[in-house]
């Protein structure tokens, strides 16, 4: 065995791993999941991880167990895959080739960032350095406020603009009546009653889905819409809202704050997603 | 900031006309779930309702807003399901569209909240928004959609599609 093919771990010389037995490859969105069975013949060195490699393209994915995901594939292209064990000495021989798959078209919806509030709470949640490569943004989350007596709302501000450059409207159901609210020349985009309060049990959280449309264009004012609500065993609100930010700048940062209270409670979570256009 | 493709199709079930409930129980590894129902019932009428983890106790509640009479709102407390539509929304003539967001479904710290919107044309409670709560901190491992009232079967061809969204 060539010296380059061996290594010492805690004084022991390792052989390279023997190849696993290839399993089934399954097509994914511009990716594939490659299954295999670990080598169990008792020969060769230990396997620390596995590498799956595509043909064509030699795209690779790594993992410590089956299956391994190989990303970066071109949608519509057919691929087969081989898998090899890896240890500090190097990469072992590759397995035989898998079945052929054709990579699927990728989704237009991508996760960008997530913020989860810790035990101390948080007054503001901020997404910064938002890439301009999407067409629309969506924020999804669950939220709980700091107020002890009643539900709270969430407000959004773009690019740290605290001027009176926003307007927003909403229709809401309180569980007994339907109503509507409109605010012009506001300093934020409001989404009332979208967070649960401390009353009613510490485990109750409101929820929200916010769409921010065509956020990166530099020709139009920006528009947001949302569906929010919190239910506290029937004592809650559900709201549809929309709003505008009178600014043609691309949105590069978003601040989320409490409308009335001091902020967000532990376990509040907001996730930012980007939606691609063609 | 990390970015990754998500909003992944998990499963689609098409009703065959002989069942009044559909259950999904294999959807681990995501942050939120989106469940879309488009269909009607094969006889009578009913509402569309949701239960988690086969819990039939009175551990659910919901608050709704709909377009009846230029806008109305109501609530149900200590219910045995999250009723996603009101007043016999499901019927044999018009398809109902219901998009359900099941938020942060696998965490073990919070009760689970559902945001839903329903549409049915051309008459009745044509537009509706709803927030529902399941008072359990357990991770959701199964979702059952069913028709209430006389429990009519879902019309053949009605579809139930489940998506998973994974946060970065």
Helices and strands in order, then pairings?
The complex is a heterodimer of chains A (278) and B (168).
Chain A: E1 7-9, E2 12-14, E3 21-28, E4 31-37, E5 49-55, E6 60-63, E7 68-71, E8 78-87, E9 90-91, E10 101-102, E11 109-116, E12 124-127, E13 136-143, E14 152-158, E15 166-173, E16 178-186, E17 189-195, E18 206-213, E19 222-230, E20 237-245, E21 254-258, E22 269-275
Chain B: E1 4-5, E2 8-14, E3 21-24, E4 32-39, E5 48-52, E6 60-66, E7 72-79, E8 82-83, E9 96-103, E10 112-120, E11 127-134, E12 143-147, E13 159-165
Antiparallel strand pairs in B: 2-13, 3-12, 4-9, 4-13, 5-8, 5-12, 6-7, 6-11, 9-10, 10-11
Structural class of chain B: mainly beta
Using DSSP, what is the number of strands of chain B? 13
Strand content of chain B: over 45%
Strand content of chain A: over 45%
Multimeric state: heterodimer
Q: What count of helical segments of chain A does DSSP give?
A: 0
Q: What is the β-strand count of chain A?
A: 22
Under CATH, the topology of the largest domain in chain A can be stated as Jelly Rolls
The end-to-end distance of chain B, rounded to whole angstroms, is 9 Å
Mean pLDDT of chain B: 90
Short description:
Chain A is mainly β and 278 residues long. Chain A is 0% helix and 50% strand.
Question: What does this protein structure show overall?
Answer:
The complex is a heterodimer of chains A (278) and B (168). Chain A has strands at residues 7-9, 12-14, 21-28, 31-37, 49-55, 60-63, 68-71, 78-87, 90-91, 101-102, 109-116, 124-127, 136-143, 152-158, 166-173, 178-186, 189-195, 206-213, 222-230, 237-245, 254-258, 269-275. With 278 residues, chain A is mainly β. Chain A has two domains: 7-102, Immunoglobulins (Immunoglobulin-like), CATH 2.60.40; 109-275, Jelly Rolls (Sandwich). The radius of gyration of chain A is 26 Å and the shape is elongated. The model of chain A has no long low-confidence stretch (mean pLDDT 91). Chain B has strands at residues 4-5, 8-14, 21-24, 32-39, 48-52, 60-66, 72-79, 82-83, 96-103, 112-120, 127-134, 143-147, 159-165. Chain B has a single domain (7-165), classed as Jelly Rolls (Sandwich), CATH 2.60.120. In chain B, β6 and β7 (72-79) form a beta hairpin. In chain B, strands 2-13-4-9-10-11-6-7 form an eight-stranded antiparallel β-sheet, with no helix packed on it. A four-stranded antiparallel β-sheet of chain B has the order 3-12-5-8, with no helix packed on it. The radius of gyration of chain B is 15 Å and the shape is globular. With 168 residues, chain B is mainly beta. The mean pLDDT of chain B is 90. Classes of the chains: A mainly beta (278), B mainly beta (168). At the A-B interface, β11, β13, β15, β16 and β18 of A face β1, β6, β7, β10 and β11 of B. β11 (109-116) of chain A pairs antiparallel with β1 (4-5) of chain B, so a sheet runs across the interface.
């Amino acid at each position: 065995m060539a010296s380059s093919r061996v290594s010492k771990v805690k004084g022991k010389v390792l052989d390279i791993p023997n190849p696993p037995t290839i399993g089934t490859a399954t097509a994914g969105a511009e990716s594939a999941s490659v299954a295999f069975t670990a080598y169990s013949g008792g020969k060769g060195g230990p396997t620390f991880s596995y590498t799956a490699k595509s043909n064509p393209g030699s795209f690779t994915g790594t993992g410590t167990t089956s299956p391994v995901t190989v990303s970066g594939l071109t949608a519509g292209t057919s691929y087969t895959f081989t898998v090899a064990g890896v240890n500090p000495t190097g990469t072992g021989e590759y397995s035989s080739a898998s079945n052929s798959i054709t990579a699927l078209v990728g989704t237009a919806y991508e996760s960008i960032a997530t913020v989860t509030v810790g035990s101390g709470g948080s007054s503001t949640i901020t997404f910064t350095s938002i890439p301009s490569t999407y067409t629309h943004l969506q924020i999804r989350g669950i939220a709980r406020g700091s107020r002890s007596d009643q539900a709270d709302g969430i407000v959004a501000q773009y690019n740290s603009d605290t001027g009176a450059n926003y307007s927003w409207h909403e229709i809401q159901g309180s569980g007994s009546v339907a109503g509507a609210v409109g605010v012009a020349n506001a300093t934020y985009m409001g989404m009332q009653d979208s967070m649960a309060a401390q009353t009613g049990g510490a485990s109750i959280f409101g929820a929200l889905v916010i769409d921010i449309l065509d956020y990166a264009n530099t020709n139009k004012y920006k528009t947001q819409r949302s569906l929010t609500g919190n239910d506290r065993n029937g004592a809650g609100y559900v709201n549809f809202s929309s709003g505008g930010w009178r600014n043609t700048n691309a949105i590069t940062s978003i601040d989320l704050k409490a409308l009335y209270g001091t902020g967000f409670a532990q376990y509040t979570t907001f996730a930012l997603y980007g939606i691609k256009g063609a | 900031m990390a970015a990754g493709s998500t909003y992944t199709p998990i499963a689609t079930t098409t009703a065959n006309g002989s069942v009044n409930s559909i259950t999904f129980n294999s959807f681990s590894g995501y942050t939120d779930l989106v469940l879309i129902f488009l269909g009607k019932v094969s006889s009578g009428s009913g509402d569309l309702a949701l239960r988690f983890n086969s819990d039939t106790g009175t551990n659910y509640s919901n608050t709704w807003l709909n377009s009846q009479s230029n806008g109305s709102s109501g609530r149900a407390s200590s219910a045995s399901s999250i009723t996603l539509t009101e007043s016999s929304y499901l019927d044999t003539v018009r398809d109902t569209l219901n998009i359900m967001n099941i938020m942060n479904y696998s965490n073990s710290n919070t009760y689970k909240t559902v945001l839903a919107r329903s549409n049915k044309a051309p008459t009745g409670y044509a537009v509706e928004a709803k927030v529902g709560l399941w008072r359990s901190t357990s991770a959701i491992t199964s979702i059952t959609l069913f028709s209430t009232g006389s429990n009519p079967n879902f019309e053949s061809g009605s579809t139930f599609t489940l998506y998973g969204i994974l946060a970065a």
